[in-house]
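Intended use. Records like the one below are meant for learning the mapping from a protein sequence to its folded structure. Do not use them to infer anything beyond what is encoded.
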Amino acid sequence: MDSFVVIVAGGNGSRMGSDIPKQFLELDGKPILMHTFERLYSITPNSNFVLVLPKIQFEYWHTLCEKHQFKFNYNLVEGGDSRFQSVKNGLSKISANSLVAIHDGVRPFINKSVFESCMKEAKNRGAAIPTLAITDSIRELGNNSSKIRDRNLFVSVQTPQCFQSQIIIESYQQEFKPSFTDDASVVENNGHEVSLVKGNKENIKITTPEDLKVALSFINR
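Structure written out for the chain above:
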């Protein structure tokens, strides 16, 4: 069975306080997106890669590739106005009867065992995502009030989110809903169950200057 990795990178850097989109910010000498790509390639070199970027960023990306001698085989796809549309565009390059992993371009520290567990579970069950237990106390906000909630009833969600191709492609034929916060929510809304796999704590999504410092500490370690 063929496997595909769809890397979605459509950030604009606003939470970073930067004019440079966050996926292009340098981490230890090269863009975060390249770290992510190289990590995934080291885990699954025989997969087919699809990179989804806003069309306006294509030229800049090509310039970075030349600068860093970044030479990998992949399909470059134009993103949409939302993550939902960007993923949908990326799925246009996926073949039938395959496995698909959809990953955030600014998560460069995915663990090999987590990736492989997600893909194996998706192959067996149809859909799988990595999650982590919540260690902080949580509260539910209401109108001018809040209520404590049992953190053991919740988990935080990461990527890659992995699916059998027919399930994810079919699910993305739905009309967008605000409740679609990730790929799993799209699939679940289409009537499919999503299996949970234990994620890895290092698999952070780099969106703030503080995240960038943490990421650098991971690399130095």
